[in-house]
C-alpha cells in the first residue's frame, strides 16, 4: 500500500462565535485510511457539531458548526505518520 502524504495542509482560520468554520486537507491518494481530526488533542467524531467528509477522494474536510470560545485552539489532521495543524 502506497504511503499517503499530505499534499495541501490546513490553513489558520479566524471566525466569529456562532459561525461555522471549515478546514481542508488534501492527501496524495484516494481512500486513505488511518485518518484522524483533533481539536486541542481531542479526537473529533462525525456528529451534529463536527461534520467530517471527503471530497473527490483526496480532500478531507472538517466543518465545526456554531463555534464557541471553547473551540479556540489547534486543529490537527493526521494521516498515518503525517500531520498538519492550524
TrEMBL record:
The keyword Heme does not apply. It is found in: Cytoplasm. InterPro entries: Ig-like_dom, Ig-like_dom_sf, Ig-like_fold, Ig_I-set, Obscurin/Obscurin-like_Reg. Residues 2-86 form the Ig-like domain. Pfam families: I-set (PF07679). Keywords: Cytoplasm, Disulfide bond, Phosphoprotein. Gene3D superfamilies: Immunoglobulins. GO terms for cellular component: cytoplasm. This is OBSCN protein.
Amino acid at each position: 500500500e502506497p504511503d499517503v502524504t499530505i499534499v495541501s495542509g490546513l490553513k489558520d482560520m479566524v471566525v466569529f462565535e456562532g459561525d461555522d468554520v471549515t478546514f481542508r486537507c488534501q492527501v496524495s491518494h484516494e481512500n486513505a485510511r488511518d485518518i484522524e481530526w483533533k481539536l486541542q488533542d481531542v479526537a473529533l467524531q462525525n456528529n451534529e457539531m463536527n461534520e467530517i467528509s471527503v471530497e473527490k477522494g483526496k480532500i478531507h474536510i472538517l466543518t465545526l458548526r456554531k463555534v464557541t470560545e471553547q473551540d479556540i485552539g489547534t486543529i490537527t489532521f493526521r494521516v498515518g505518520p503525517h500531520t498538519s495543524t492550524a
